[in-house]
């Protein structure tokens, strides 16, 4: 047929739909065809060479990604069936049930083509799931053949129960499959002396960690942290350290990963890596990323921190050195993030940083736009400054390093992209720079420097103009606190209206006044 001219928007939709269809085509094939094709042997003889050709067509990582995508489709379809069933859309329920049946069979067949040592328990669940799906399809087919409301009503509860059972079997099967694959990968890591095989297994393991916390828990429970730290203690695998440490950082986002790290003296191993100058910068940076992960103030589990304190001085010293010698913004970000997190849970860290001239190093780094090149990096630096500012000796360091000027600049932090994560980082930079100013301004010299740099007008603007602070309440509170501290040192620097509204009332009253200004501008 001759092609008809289409509006540009419709043409775009058509292209997008075709591309989407092409992507999903291999997941939408007829299950009977799949069964026939996949059960055909390449050769009559069961030689190992043919098996090797079959298994090498796709990597384990590709196969797992295909499995996870298929599982996501099945899970989504089951949810949609439940919704259609609630509305008594029997025709739709049946067609979707047939489709799920197809997906389940295809998923099982696909999985069995690239795994050879699946357990008896897995085979049992496969059979249970297939049988239940067949029963489900037969039940929904009977429903579309009758119009009797009473019969449909009585069948609906049975179909709901069958759907629930399928979802349970499916969830248990996927859990078994993922556990089995994690075990296989960890077995490869533990038993192989080949750098290539180990690298491939670690790469597949890292891909699994990116699928969410649940998979990280499975890997941790199966001994993933133990196996990876074993790699980090063998010189023959030095070239794999960065990749191994990156995978460890992902697993340690869950409590099970932390427990494993504690059991294998992981923190001591990380300290050894960070203090060993023969390692590459990439290895040091990834070790810093693990430290940043396990010291995150957002974690609710902190049992591992007792052993961390024993190695803290060595770790902090190595991280400061990494900040000083960082060749890129990414390396600096990882090292400074680790330092920022460490300063939250022990004041001793701040004292160590002061002794190491960390303030001078961080302030110097901020003047290099190639190193401190994003709001995320500035967020880490100002977090360290804010936590160090509780120490009295910090004020003189700030003055010497021209730190007040930097804090003033940070009060102007704005996102250039409008990206929500970047906007949030800019808000944190503004808030923490105001907090740091408030804390340091108890020293008259710092307060005087801040006043000379016109900090007071900027703080007033941030309080009075919601758009300047991106409507952030936390920035407003910090700016009010800093303004009040500076006003004590220089009451003449404020106009009477600013003093009466932003300084004289209780903090909460000034806060309410400024937030009401926001409403009046809308």
From TrEMBL:
InterPro entries: ARM-like (IPR011989), ARM-type_fold (IPR016024), Armadillo (IPR000225), Insc_C (IPR045789), INSC_LBD (IPR031938), INSC_LBD_sf (IPR038205), Inscuteable (IPR039921). Gene3D superfamilies: Inscuteable LGN-binding domain, Leucine-rich Repeat Variant. Residues 70-522 form the Protein inscuteable homologue C-terminal domain. GO terms for molecular function: cytoskeletal anchor activity. GO terms for biological process: apical protein localization; asymmetric cell division; establishment of mitotic spindle orientation; regulation of asymmetric cell division. SUPFAM superfamilies: ARM repeat. GO terms for cellular component: apical cortex. SMART domains: ARM. It comes from the Eukaryota. Residues 13-57 form the Protein inscuteable homologue LGN-binding domain. This is INSC protein. The lineage of its organism: Eukaryota, Metazoa, Chordata, Craniata, Vertebrata. The gene is Insc.
